[in-house]
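Subject: design request, 240 residues
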């Protein structure tokens, strides 16, 4: 059971339909949708981050346990051909629908969220954390330095590389020839993806253009055994 408190925030696992409904409502608000619920919700553990002072829900995400044999059941498999990951030995978890309330900008929220993720990973013996990391909007020109940085430093190992499945993609690894401006790249990199990368994460060689969600997203994986020891200590320090 996930439950931790750090400073002004506490993380807990959804215990009721009401908790899941609250997470879905926050997701809808963050993603600009009238409603956000899908067939994956009943299969997931939902993590909610609340402000201690007033119990306001400020962040949520969901975790779905998988193995290589059932990787095709994942949310990400709708958009990426993940056949290579069927050979991955070890427990996996897909982290999805991550969002932070738009009127809250406290970086401690992200720290508590990753502390909760670390607790889940440890409790379940997870060896691969993965999901879709989203850029706001669908204009690739806004993120060329970020995509060039992903190509230069963070592409998935060939043995795990997701293949193209979605009908509308931006093949940045094949198309971009620019040297990334590191400062511009990191400024335009989504905070969640930036955290994945600091943990040694890797990405697909293409981005999916998701018009429904008005995002560009890349498949992102983090092999738990490859996370730098110092980063693991920081994550587990939040767990306490």
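Subject: RE: design request

Done. Sequence follows.
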């Amino acid at each position: 059971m996930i439950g931790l408190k750090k400073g002004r925030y506490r993380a807990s696992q959804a215990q009721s339909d009401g908790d899941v409904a609250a997470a879905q409502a926050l997701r809808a608000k963050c993603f600009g949708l009238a409603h956000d619920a899908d067939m994956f919700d009943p299969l997931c553990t939902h993590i909610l981050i609340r402000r201690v002072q007033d119990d306001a829900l400020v962040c949520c995400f969901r975790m779905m346990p998988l193995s290589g044999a059932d990787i095709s059941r994942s949310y990400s498999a709708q958009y990426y051909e993940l056949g290579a990951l069927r050979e991955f030995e070890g427990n996996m978890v897909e982290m999805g629908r991550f969002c932070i309330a738009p009127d809250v900008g406290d970086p401690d929220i992200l720290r508590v969220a990753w502390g909760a993720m670390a607790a889940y990973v440890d409790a379940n013996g997870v060896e691969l954390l993965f999901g879709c990391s989203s850029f706001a909007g669908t204009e690739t020109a806004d993120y060329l330095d970020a995509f060039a940085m992903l190509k230069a430093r963070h592409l998935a190992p060939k043995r795990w590389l997701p293949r193209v499945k979605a009908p509308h993609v931006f093949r940045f690894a094949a198309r971009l020839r620019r040297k990334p401006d590191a400062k511009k790249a990191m400024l335009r990199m989504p905070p969640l993806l930036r955290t994945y990368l600091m943990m040694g994460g890797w990405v697909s060689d293409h981005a999916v253009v998701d018009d429904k969600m008005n995002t560009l997203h890349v498949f992102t994986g983090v092999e738990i055994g490859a996370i730098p020891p110092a980063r693991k200590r920081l994550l587990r320090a939040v767990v306490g």
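Residues 107-124 form the longest helix (18 residues).
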